[in-house]
Amino acid sequence: MRDRHEFITTSSLKPRGKKKTDASREEVVMEMRGAYCRGREAHDVWKIGRISLTNNRLVLRHLNFPKVLFETPLRKIRGLTIEGDGHSSEAERYSLYLLLEDGCTAKLQALGVSTLGKAIRGQLAILAAAGKRQIVPAPLVGAPGR
């Protein structure tokens, strides 16, 4: 099996032009290959799939069959940041950390992690303007190229 970094970096970032999904009438804003980390430092388990950012939620689906590996409504995101792993200066070694409403932290990796972070912030701002969300998270910290 390929290394998760190789898998993520060999895929292309695919911004989508507000495509409507049939099942839920959500607008897909962006899709890309990525990974979600579940677990603690010594026992990390990475789930690899396709990240979809819609106007209402962030979803990681399995590549080969219809299984949701990670999902959170955007209204439950209380903060986000991008940080490096401390071992590499390569852009693909950065992770997006999401602070969720219940106090849990989700860790995501993708080739365009900075672009994904900005897109999530944009969707959160749209939700805040529509009155569906009250607080927009603080600006990204430690993003590549900043």
β content, as a range? 35-45%
Radius of gyration from CA coordinates: 15 Å
- The CA-CA distance between the termini, in Å, is 33 Å
- Looking at the structure, the CATH topology is PH-domain like
Shape, per Cα inertia axes: globular
Folded structure, characterized:
- This protein starts with a helix and ends in a 17-residue tail after the last helix.
- Helix content is 16%, strand content 42%.
- Strands 1, 2, 3, 4, 5, 6, 7 and 8 form an eight-stranded antiparallel β-sheet that branches.
- It has 146 residues and is an alpha+beta fold.
- It contains two helices and eight strands; from the N terminus they run H-E-E-E-E-E-E-E-E-H.
- The chain has one domain: Pleckstrin-homology domain (PH domain)/Phosphotyrosine-binding domain (PTB) (PH-domain like), CATH 2.30.29.30.
- The longest helix has 17 residues, at 113-129.
List descriptors.
42% strand; PH-domain like; 146 residues; single chain; eight-stranded antiparallel beta sheet; globular; alpha+beta
Short characterization:
This protein has 146 residues and is an alpha+beta fold. The protein has helices at 4-9, 113-129, and strands spanning 14-20, 27-38, 45-54, 57-61, 68-73, 77-84, 94-100, 105-110. The chain has a single domain (4-129), classed as PH-domain like (Roll).
